[in-house]
UniProtKB/TrEMBL annotation:
PANTHER family: GLUTAMATE SYNTHASE [NADPH] SMALL CHAIN, GLUTAMATE SYNTHASE [NADPH] SMALL CHAIN-RELATED. CDD domains: PsrB. InterPro entries: 4Fe4S_Fe-S-bd (IPR017896), Asp_de-COase-like_dom_sf (IPR009010), TAT_signal (IPR006311). It comes from Falsiroseomonas selenitidurans. Residues 684-713, 739-770, 772-800 form the 4Fe-4S ferredoxin-type domain. It comes from the Bacteria. This is 4Fe-4S dicluster domain-containing protein.
Amino acid sequence: MTAPDPLPPPDRRSLLRAAGASLALAAAAGCDDPQEFGAPLHARPRGVSADSASYATVLDLDGLGRGVLARTLGGHAIKLEGNPRHPASLGATDVFLESAVLALHDPARSRHLRRQGRALRDAAEFETWLAAQQAALDLRGGEGLRLLTGPVASPTTRRLIAALLARWPAARWHVQAPMEDPAAAAGAMLAFGRPVVALPALSRATCVLALGADPLGPGPAQLAQARGWAAARAAGREAGRMPALIVAESTPSLTGAKADRRLTLPPAGIEALGRAVAAAFGLGPAAAHPEAAPIAAALRAAGPGALVLAGRGQPEAVHALAHWLNARLGAPVRLVPDPLAAPAGTLAGLLAQAEAVTHLLILDANPAYDAPAGLDIAGLLRRVPHSLHAGVQVDETALACGWHLPLRHPLECWGDSRAFDGTAALRQPATVPLVEAAIAPDALLARLAGEAADGAAPVQATWRAAWGADFEARWLQALEAGLIADSAPAPLAIAPRADVALPPPAPAARGLVAVFAPDATLWDGRFATEAWLHELPRPLGGVMWGQAVLLAPRDAAALGVADGAVLELTLAGRRLHAPVLVTPGQAPGVVTLPLGGGRQVAGGMPGGIGFDAYSLRPAAAPWVAPGLALRPTGAAQALVGHLPERALAEATPRVRRVAAGEAIPPLPTPRSLYEPWRYPGRAWGMAIDLDTCIGCNACVLACQAENNTPVVGPEEAAMGRTMHWLRVDRVESGPPEDRSVDFQPVPCMHCEKAPCEVVCPVNATVHDAEGLNLMVYPRCIGTRTCSNNCPYKVRRFNWAGYARQAGAVPVRNPAVPLRPRGVIEKCTYCQHRIKAAGEGVAETACQRACPTRAIHFGDINDPDSAVARAKREGRSYALLGELDTRPRTTYLARIGA
């Protein structure tokens, strides 16, 4: 079957239609009776209606699980929170977890069986075909069958794959993992002779050297690693000795933004630095490097608190020397078996056997889009007589296969998973099934393997065999906790080989180097169906509704291009056109291409948003490829959302480090003629710690998910009309070659002396008895005088009635009213959560999502509350405090080097 024709550029109407799930549940939401589709064993929060429940479950990223609590109403999941007990979430969320409910309720989800791209209403034809193929495979022992999946750590899925291969011994299993780093596995083999992964304990680190690593950036372990890093910062403040974070990288990252010392180096320069540091400890030949001696001294001084991390795209030698250095230093690292290591072939291996393939089952993978350039997936799918794709979306691979079978969303089905550290958890349905024809992935495998496939039967069979007579009690316990206690493997007591021999460095690359990287919001492309993530600004650069290649200022000047200029990129004879973003802090000679864009078939989203970096990505060098050529085309493309300068011109202050027991001197406070207003009861306030904020945007998306904030589309976003109630400003300083970045979340300040209140002609914005600055939407007549007088620019005007345009029932979170066209809306400190908490502890959505616990919220009249303690710190200051607006939201300054 031929590939689909390229789609026209996205238009506003189709984007708003695709964004319908961001405004509402499916049309049936709120109309179904509550059903026992899982086990809602978590206590119901105060003030929540009887038809609501909270389910502990788990969602995967690259095959590794993160625990969540799914809040449901009327049988439908409406919000996800992190599970505090799960080691991969620790109560926090990231942008991918927050957007999962949007994908669940996506109106464009796959809803029907398809044959050759044609939807079928009757499953009889598929059942007949499937029975015939099973019978044929039984006769041949599975000869000619290939199973292709994404990365798999699930115990049940692995057991079922093994059972399928036992039924058909001649069949083979292959894995397509776009985010896999083969050099990391090779480095572990070089150091230890076996596949292991290192789990750093950042909370115990006092000096970290990141060689191209981004532990604070997006990924399956981000939430745990960010929490550990924040804990180390907090311990350092108490001890008077802040941990040092040294980052060597080619492309600016979240970890680099928080570094105490950042080195901008090309990939070869990072390897040279790593080799020189290792040589200072006795590994490899002596190597001269100007930065190696002071870094080695810092690591040596830190002793068992020293930690070396090697990142995605580094050669195997860097991964091996990182393992060796950590062992030499006694670093806080655990070595565990790789939870994703599997007896499976690769996608390239599958193509090498293409002539022998007669049956191809692709389970929840999209190789027609994310395969490296040069691998002829389309040709394979045309040649295979019988192909079946099973997935949640009708994607590029679904249209290229003979058959497509809709899968249930992970929030709709039973299963299990393992986290990055190997901790197992059960997945249970947290919502009624929204697609009648869909089947759970494990149910499909169980059926093919000849096992019971109903409901929880496959996963129960896995754990019944493991637990024996204790099954019933442990099953309920695991469902309630959201994880299986003590299921993580014990650390491996192994040391690096004594004869580790690092391979010689690669020859110096000529010309420009292409670096491929996961996109901060689209990841590897699987999230390109979600409008929330398209409209979420990238943490660095701020681009939304599109992508750009990242180019150093020096290289941009040499080419004579500026932001938005369209370049022709050529690598190994393949060409791609993409706009450029001139990026301070980018290594000269290095061009970074984010993956995940350019999808032609992305559910209900229009095709062609961003560009397809996979079309240039070499199979042999998936992360770093030399030989890139650039040519300006003379065309230009507007970069939606990119703001070179911060909206507020004030730089965030920094305070100096102090010795143990010494108090940080208080920052200067502007004088005021106003007397402080005293609240007799509770007084709500917020304090945001800029020292631990990593700019990940989880708070922004959590606010959007909680408060029914609509998507406006690229045309409106380009005019500055996005509706986010919370933004994260980037405060940049320093020269372009060594730019420093601070992040500052900016919600409504809830000012005591709010300029917005005194100018409203209809008294629509008011102060309540607990200090909240509130909006009375029925009063608002849209004069926007409040927005014009807000110095923080945190009020949003609903220009087009976005909440009604998609035609869906707007009942996403019934606790928060939907706002009509022509009114101002803004952050309310999650007033509905305050009311639901009653006399208990209230948490805002942004506070709950934050992986580093940088956001403190509560009653500032309670001297023992975390927010009151934070406001008493010497680092506390008010944004634009000289205006004397008396904001209830204040900040804790970042601690400098």
